[in-house]
Write a structure and sequence with these properties.
Blueprint (H helix, E strand, L loop, with lengths): L3 E8 L2 E8 L4 E3 L7 H14 L1 H9 L1 H4 L6
Antiparallel strand pairs: 1-2, 2-3
Length: 70
């Protein structure tokens, strides 16, 4: 099964958002956010805007076996 993780880590005076894909690929925001929830929400919105990456995940055999989001 493929995994996508949204996380936030402290950076400067805020938190930096990170999207991590299975296989070790991750993308971090250049911006920092005042709270963890804002950083994670920003990462989720950025992920939704990356339709090519989402399509690639959808075509992954392991992803098809996973349960849909509720």
């Amino acid at each position: 099964m493929s995994h996508v993780t949204l996380s936030a880590t402290p950076k400067g005076n805020g938190d930096q958002a990170t999207v991590s894909f299975a296989g070790g690929v991750s993308l971090s925001s250049a911006e920092t956010y005042p709270s963890i929830s804002e950083a994670v929400a920003a990462a989720a919105m950025r992920l939704l805007s990356m339709t090519d990456r989402l399509d690639a995940l959808d075509e992954s055999p392991g992803m098809r076996a996973s349960a849909p989001f509720s």
